[in-house]
Write a structure and sequence with these properties.
Layout: H1 3-12, H2 23-26, H3 39-49, E1 61-64, H4 71-86, E2 106-111, H5 118-129, H6 141-152, E3 157-162, H7 175-180, E4 186-192, E5 207-210, H8 216-230, H9 238-248, H10 252-268, H11 276-285, H12 293-297, H13 301-312, H14 321-329, H15 338-350, E6 354-358, E7 370-374, H16 378-388
Parallel strand pairs: 1-4, 1-5, 2-3, 3-4
Antiparallel strand pairs: 6-7
Helix pairs in contact: 5-6, 8-9, 8-10, 9-10, 10-11, 14-15
Pfam family, one: AAA_16
Protein name: Cdc6/Cdc18 family protein
Domain Orc1-like AAA ATPase: 38-175
């Protein structure tokens, strides 16, 4: 034990008890370096990627599974580790008869929630392959493609393309077109929720890998591990973790969100342990079905600003989209016209971030107005949005 640790231990003796010790470990949008109990899926992915250890390129593939099954966490963790291997070719075992060890391809992860154009896609791939910063303006898409073609002409790359079927992004059917202008030294690993027979990706992939929802016991372990890393000692009782896991039905995103909201509530109440009431309140706040908080937070800054105020709008001002627009537009930090605010609200309704629900009224003519309902838990969004600012 070093001197700093000894001093911190003595300081803690005089601190008031704290429930939340590490917010980062509790964030439902954070991915761990080593996903828990996902060995079989990792083996399937490694089986598919096995050719890279011999210096060859694997075929295209599609990883799919329901919301909250951990697809992104698994692929991101695996590609992060493989990226280290690709930077150290001598980590590959080779025989004495091979004069030069095989070159491992580069591993690139692209989140399609952040890529809304061919330009952004080429920029993201190139940025991951080179050490120097890549300009995000003043360069054409054609120039980026030419540089990528030259760069990949002498090397190989496997590109993981996540969230290919999210609403509002680049259509999965256009994914093959994004790679069409790149050399044959590139293969891709698409990640989405749709089954292979429901997407055009099956035409361009050699294999598909299914990721199932978390089993209840495994999800309990995930929740307890996150609580152990982020909360005070024994702050989450096993029976409460089990209750969250039963409610979440194998959806790790919803389970971790419930833990985060419950911990935030308990901390604001001055508790040193999570109580039944904290878990109940957290579960009641999360809509079913809900939308990924990661997807919400990936919205452009202006839409996030509007959404941040929508969360705080008084219920009386949510009776119609028009009333909600007026309330948000009146905020001093909203430098947007009412028309733009309303357009943003409608666009977010079209992509499922919020939902338009028809209001009930007994008087008046014409179609009843519609109000907006959130498809994500407001407390979790508010805390995460504030962290970003």
């Amino acid at each position: 034990m070093d001197i700093g640790t000894r001093i911190e231990r003595r300081q803690r003796r005089y601190e008031k008890p704290r429930l939340i010790r590490n917010y980062g470990s509790l964030l439902p949008v954070a991915h761990v370096d080593e996903p828990s109990n996902r060995g079989p899926v990792l083996e399937q992915l490694l089986d598919h990627l096995d050719p890279v250890f011999g210096g060859e390129l694997p075929p295209n593939a599609y990883v799919h599974g329901p919301f909250g099954s951990g697809k992104s966490a698994i692929v991101r963790a695996l590609f992060a580790h493989l990226g280290g291997v690709s930077r150290d070719t001598y980590s590959i075992v080779h025989t004495s008869t091979r004069a030069v060890p095989p070159t491992v391809p580069e591993f690139v992860y692209i989140d399609m929630r952040e890529v809304t154009s061919e330009f952004a896609f080429c920029h993201g791939v190139l940025n991951a392959l080179v050490d120097e910063p890549v300009p995000d303006h003043g360069v054409s898409t054609a120039e980026f493609r030419e540089r990528l073609y030259t760069l990949l002409g002498s090397s190989q790359a496997v590109v993981a393309v996540d969230h290919v079927d999210d609403p509002g992004g680049i259509d999965a059917a256009d994914l093959a077109d994004l790679f069409a202008g790149l050399p044959s030294t590139v293969s891709w690993l698409a990640i989405g929720r749709d089954d292979p027979d429901e997407t055009s990706l099956s035409r361009d992939t050699a294999t598909s890998i299914r990721v199932e929802r978390y089993r209840r016991r495994v999800l309990v372990d995930v929740l307890m591990a996150r609580a152990s890393a982020g909360l005070a000692h024994q702050a989450l009782a096993h029976d409460l973790a089990r209750r969250i896991a039963v409610w979440a039905e194998g959806n790790a995103h919803d389970g971790l969100t419930a833990l985060f909201v419950a911990a935030d509530r308990a901390d604001r109440e001055g508790h040193t342990r999570l109580a039944e009431a904290d878990v109940t309140a957290a579960i009641d706040e999360i809509p079913r079905p809900s939308v990924s908080l990661d997807r919400v937070l990936s919205l452009p800054a202006n839409k996030l600003l509007v959404l941040g105020h929508l969360v705080d709008v008084d219920p009386d001002d949510r009776v119609s989209v028009t009333a909600t627009t007026e309330a948000i537009s009146a905020e001093p930090d909203v430098d947007l016209s009412a028309g733009t605010v309303k357009r943003f609200l409608y666009e977010m309704a079209e992509t499922g971030i919020v939902e338009r629900v028809q209001s009930h009224r007994s008087t008046g003519k014409g179609r009843p107005p519609s109000r907006l309902e959130l498809r994500f838990p407001p407390i979790a969004f508010r805390r995460l949005y504030d962290f970003q600012q």
